[in-house]
Amino acid sequence: MTQLYEVTIARYGTRVGRRSEVYLNHQLYHEDDAPIGMDYFVWVVRGGDRTIVVDTGYSVAGGERRARTMLHEPPSLFETLGVHPADAPTVVVTHAHYDHIGNLDHFDSSRIVIAQAELDFWASKHAQRVQFHHSVEDAELAALFAAVEEGRVDAFEDSVEVAPGVEVLRLGGHTPGQSVVRVPTSAGVVLLASDAVHYYEEYERDMPFSSVAELVQMYEGFDRIRAMLDSGEVDHLVSGHDPATLDRFRPLGRSDSELVVTIGASDGVAPTAAPAVSAVTA
Predict the structure, then answer these.
(1) Type and span of the H or E element at 51
(2) Residues facing 208 on adjacent strands
(3) CA–CA separation, 193 vs 44, rounded Å?
(4) Residue whose C-alpha is closest to residue 170's, from 136, 193, 199
(5) What is the CB neighbour count within 10 angstroms for residue 149?
(6) Residue 67, CB-side half-sphere exposure with 13 Å CA sphere
(7) How far apart are the C-alpha atoms of 57 and 261, rounded to whole Å?
(8) DSSP label at 209?
(9) Would you say 173 and 196 are in contact if contact means Cβ atoms under 8 Å apart?
């Protein structure tokens, strides 16, 4: 029997930018510029006695430096969701940008899963170039590589199964090791796209995001995701930053609060308290 999991989508931050900042060479689409919201999420996968954290959000310092609004600090949000560092949940890092590894040190006993290509890139000379470096925090990269030295990091090439049926796939594009996570649930197979798809419009209209390491790989990532959806290999696509994400999944899952939606159900997972919203603009 296939192990089924539940997937929790938790929103912790937000901001408003402009379409010309978000989409690569926006002027090529001959559309008016306009404001666009961007939300920030972390994800938790649970099934039986397994808990997998997918990305750890931005830190207070990382958010303040970029004037992001913090709705709920990720470490306390994880605690509210019943995810505790002492239990050493597996942590999947989809890529090493500031808003995805900002609280990695919160899980200081966990094993960390990340693409080898991502580690190689951020250890290279290119990590310090302006077009890449603005998306990371040096202290957070140092924490990641300290975990490598401690032997807590499991690097993979193209794909890896982190629990029965839960697969992490490297697509590249946004960063060299940009990865997605495929999870079987009682509501169908969920793809946590992270920043392979920041916005649903991004892959629906073939509009690459402005921050891109390899443009052809980003396009190929869109194609691969479309193929997974068209073939039925994946039933539900969860974007990395689209403000419409939670509303898309409220009818499908259960909504514990305005910040959280859980898709699917898993035996042995206790319900958690609803996290409160206390917005702080950095």
Answers:
(1) strand 50-54
(2) none
(3) 13
(4) 193
(5) 8
(6) 2
(7) 17
(8) B
(9) yes
Q: What are phi and psi of 78, to 5 degrees?
A: -60, -45
Contact call for residues 196 and 225 (beta carbons, < 8 A): yes
Provide the pairing of β-strand 6-18 with 236-239: unpaired
Q: Which amino acid is at 40?
A: Y
Residue whose C-alpha is closest to residue 282's, from 69, 74, 13: 69
Work out the number of other CB atoms within 10 angstroms of the CB of residue 223.
13
pLDDT digits (tens), the chain, 282 positions: 789 999 999 999 999 999 999 999 999 999 999 999 999 999 999 998 999 999 999 999 999 999 999 999 999 999 999 999 999 999 999 999 999 999 999 999 999 999 999 999 999 999 999 999 999 999 999 999 999 999 999 999 999 999 999 999 999 999 999 999 999 999 999 999 999 999 999 999 999 999 999 999 999 999 999 999 999 999 999 999 999 999 999 999 998 789 999 999 865 454 444 554 445 444
**Are 167 and 152 spatial neighbours (Cβ–Cβ below 8 Å)?**
no
Q: Which residues contact 204 (CB under 8 A, 6 or more apart)?
A: none
Contact 64, 281 (CB under 8 A): no
182 phi/psi in degrees, rounded to 5:
-105, 125
**Residue 248 amino acid letter:** R
> For the range 210-215, what are the long-range contacts, defined as Cβ-Cβ under 8 Å and sequence gap of 24 or more?
210/21, 210/22, 210/23, 210/24, 210/26, 211/135, 211/174, 212/24, 212/173, 212/174, 213/121, 213/132, 213/172, 213/173, 213/174, 213/175, 213/176, 214/172, 214/173, 214/176, 215/24, 215/173
Q: How far apart are CA 42 and CA 135, in angstroms?
A: 17
3-state secondary structure of 233: coil
Q: What are the tokens at 119?
A: 């580690």
d(CA 214, CA 208): 10
